[in-house]
Amino acid sequence: MKEKPVIRFERFALDNGLRVVAAHDASAPVVAVNLWYNVGSRNEREGRTGFAHLFEHMMFQGSEHVPENAHFALIEKVGGSLNGSTWLDRTNYFETLPSHHLELGLWLESDRLGWLLPAMTQEKLDNQREVVKNERRWRVDNQPYGDWDEQLQEMMYPPDHPYHHSVIGSMDDLDAATLEDVEEFFRTYYTPNNAVLTIAGDFNPATLPDLVERYFGEIPAGPPVPPIPGRTQLEPLLGEEIRRVVEQDVTLPRIYLAFRIPRYGSDEFYTAAVIAQMLGEGKGALLYRHLIRTGLAQDVVAYAFPIVVGAAMMVAWTTAMPGIDVGSLERALLDAVAELRNASDADVTRAIRMIEASRLRDLQRVDERADTLSMFTMLFDDPDRINTEIERICAVTTNDVRAFAECFLGVNNRALLEYVPRKS
Amino acid sequence: MSTLDRSTPPAPAPLREFRFPRIRRRVLDNGMTVLHAVHGIAPIVTIHFVADAGAVREGNARAGLAELTANLLETGTASKDAQQIAVELETLGAQLETAVSWDATSLSLTVPAEHAPTALAILGEILLQPAFVSSEFERLRQEQLGQIVRRKQDPRLLAADVMGRFFYAPESPYSRPLIGTTETVSALGQHDVIEFYHDRFGPATSAVLLVGAVDERLLAAVEHTFGAWESAAKPGAAVPTNPATDRTTVYIVDRPGSVQSELRIGHVGLARHHPDFFPVVVMNAILGGLFTSRLNLNLREKHGFTYGARSAFAFRRYPGPFVMQAAVANDVTARAVEESLREVDLLRDNGATIDEVIAARDFIIGVQPLELQTTEQLAVRLAEIFTFDLPDDYFDHFRRGIAEVTPDDVKRVAVEHIHPDRFAIVVVGSAEHVEKPLRDLDLGPVLTHRIND
Asked: Can you give the residue ranges of every domain in chain B?
């Protein structure tokens, strides 16, 4: 590619430990406010799976100076958009606003970081518990193959590893959550020293540091954050093939194939990211060629999870065409993956060019820029990876792909989760 | 620094003016429309082709034909096979997205600007010299049949696919799934695809939209690629959109084992050109378009029945559906229906407050620049201008149209365009759990169907 646009930013920190990244670009009158908290489902204790996500819902229920429902209402009424999400390693909160309303975002985010607990009530908790249980039904229990991540995480990570359980958690654990849990979780993890704030888009760079100090500066630092519970180190390989067959009310079999891979941020991870692209993205992809063009499958997906505790995983999945049995699909899937040991330059180049172009497309959005900067600051203390990570992708060679396939994509490092129609 | 008063939201800074990007139009010698706009700072271009080849044009007996034709286009040209087309485009960094709606077929891609002319040439070959290879036809037909099977497994997709038949009379194309049925897709032949292509794809029925780092060289390439295209394809005629029923009826689509019910409550709505478009958009935002809409605050934030409830008017070329939707737990299904209907009655009887109307208007107006950050987003807007035959400066006046909506307008259009006496109340879920409570509501006849009925 000719010219790579560079995303420029400033970074600073407040006395209370809040890390701040500010990426100015006034090309549109739009600004994004994004907060990453270094807490996710990996931090949950036994008996409280799903709590990090339930807590995220409570963050939208108002705070001392923000009445119930006002968080959404105030942002919507100025034409902003907002949400939050919880994942294995982190919880993020974000709003995109017409830029003259930047302070509204700072006011709302600082109020719930500094003054959440006075607004918490049992009624709000009970209501959001029901909402989240319905989210679980919607995403997991009422969806074909909906529990795949729950199943796969159980298979890929040992019981004492923090990725062993899924983000959404169990109904029983959601039922068990109390207001005391909300308070304890808040005091433990929702502290300025456990957060990154990014502001991207149209703002006044000269006054921004003062503005952030004004809203966030008086929030006291919290105690040191406890370490992630359980075992956080893993062997580089699974050491065996793990298989699970799940009977469900589905007509078409689906296979999930997972491999343990080095954590996000490592050189090998970027090879895995290129491999996932080679396998699953676009109609020129290997799995498309071997499974869809041959009439065996109707969809293919491959994805390297950008997660950092112990080891990450790469997952590919595919749904059978009617009349195709799970055994034939599995053979074709494994054959396609085995081809990576003889990967061609053309396939590697295709994948890298696609990733490069998709970065350009994604980073058009201020919210995407802000979230990416928060992520790199939180995970690697290096926001400039928003500019430099692509170089590591581009540096992946055909030999790297072949060597990675040899080392990580073999029988002793894979899990196969197969959904098959229930025998009636 | 003075102590911050946190008790009220901060005042906004001075408004920065926002202008909708300047849209330029060119008409090629053969009559083909080109709309283009320089947009954004990324060195990329979105190339978006759109044709009046939506599913309304295929005829009910050939349901699924638009989808099959669109997918078949990129599987071979005079000089390239399917794999070559995919690999060549993807090696440029472009991923071709083919989409079929009721109104249109589109093929679009976004590519680094330096490769835009090459990508455009390939797109032109796909559109002007499709090979329609029979082996690819058969593969894609089977794939579409497979997707029909898969969609029936999934309660949301199933609800989307069956809803139409309870809203629209059988003669309306909107009564059946966009992707077609097992019966109609099984009956499609390669000659149907070729006929549909010649009938629907041509300079008089389609447009090329260019957004991003657009330059004269690319515009010249468009002229070169599409300027000599000849085709007899003509704009299509109106299709029937009459309703399935004239009285409120409950339709249960039994999905044994469901732990939630997918609710779809509504009826035939309005066309994109309806003169009440602006007040209806504002009214719907209040009812179910916003997170803080009445439906969501009631069903989610007050009762915890659902992860989310919303409503929408699908403004198509011909009157699309109005629908309120939510996924609700089995044991609260009937209550969620009741609460949804209550919100409709309240809005029709009492209208909305001035504060609600202002909040909805300001959201719709304020969110416009947020939704125009990418070249793809603007291209979709240009496609709207072409498909619905809107003036090129339509979006310059959009904000004024919204700003002029009053509480009286909101009440009037709620009364005129939402009809509680002829709702189709579609419930995809476990009949065993929901049928009796729904009957007890006594809303009208309750009819239970099996998934494959």
From this structure: 24-226, 249-450
Using CA atoms of B170, B420, A135, A362 in order, give the dihedral in degrees to the nearest 10.
Answer: 70
- Enter the tokens of residue B395: 């979006």
Overall average pLDDT of the B85-111 stretch:
98
- The answer to whether the Cβ–Cβ distance between A29 and B369 falls below 8 Å is yes
Q: What is the mean pLDDT of residues A133-149?
A: 97
Q: Count Cα atoms within 13 angstroms, Cβ side, for B447.
A: 12
A368-372: which pairs have CB atoms within 8 A and are 24 or more residues apart?
A369/A7, A369/A23, A369/A25, A369/A32, A369/A200, A369/A201, A370/A23, A370/A32, A370/A33, A370/A34, A370/A94, A370/A198, A370/A199, A370/A200, A370/A201, A371/A32, A371/A34, A371/A36, A371/A92, A371/A94, A371/A198
Indicate the range of A122-136, B13-27, B417-431 predicted with least confidence. B13-27
- Based on the domain organization, do A59 and A186 belong to the same domain? yes
Kindly state whether residues A73 and A207 are assigned to the same domain: yes
Which of A14, A347, A361 is best to mutate for the B interface (most B CBs within 10 A)? A361
CA distance B102 to B317: 8
Q: Please check the confidence at residue A171 and state whether its pLDDT lies above 70.
A: yes
- From the list B6, B93, B143, which residue is nearest A353 (CB)? B93
Contact of B110 with A361, CB cutoff 8 Å: yes
> A297 and A154: one domain?
no
- For the segment A50-68, the average pLDDT, to the nearest whole number, is 97
Cβ(A410)–Cβ(A260) below 8 Å: no
CA A378 to chain centre: 13
**Is A335 exposed, middle or buried, given 0-12, 13-18 or 19+ CB atoms closer than 10 A?**
exposed
**B197 SS3 class:** helix
pLDDT at A2 over 70: no
Q: Is residue A36 part of a domain?
A: yes
Q: How confident is the model at residue B117 (pLDDT cuts 50, 70, 90)?
A: very high
Q: Indicate the number of domains in chain A.
A: 2
Same domain? For A116 and A153 the reply is yes
pLDDT per residue as tens digits for the range A198-221: 999 999 999 999 999 999 999 999
Is B82 within 8 Å of chain A by CB?
yes
Average pLDDT over residues A81-108: 97
Residue among A106, A111, A357 minimizing CB distance to B93: A357
Query: Residue B367 is nearest to which of A5, A81, A130, comparing CB atoms?
Result: A81
Distance CA B93, CA A71 (A): 40
Contact residues, chain A, for B133 at CB < 8 Å: none
Question: Does B290 have pLDDT greater than 60?
Answer: yes
Query: What range does the domain containing A42 cover?
Result: 10-216
Taking residues A301-328, report their average pLDDT.
98
Chain B: closest CA distance from residue A138 (Å): 7
Interface touch A354/B40, C-beta < 8 Å: no
- B329 neighbourhood in chain A, CB within 8 Å: 133-134, 137
Evaluate if residue B453 carries a pLDDT over 80: no
Give the mean pLDDT of A30-45: 98
Question: Would you say A411 and A243 are in contact if contact means Cβ atoms under 8 Å apart?
Answer: no
Under an 8 A CB cutoff, do A142 and B260 touch? yes
> CATH topology for B24-226?
Cytochrome Bc1 Complex; Chain A, domain 1 (3.30.830)
Provide, as residue numbers in chain B, all residues whose Cβ is less than 8 Å from the Cβ of A148.
none
Q: How far apart are CA A235 and CA A269, in angstroms?
A: 15
> Are A286 and A186 in the same domain?
no
Alpha-carbon span B322 to B312, nearest angstrom: 6
- A406 falls within a domain: yes
If one looks up domain B249-450 in CATH, what number appears? 3.30.830.10
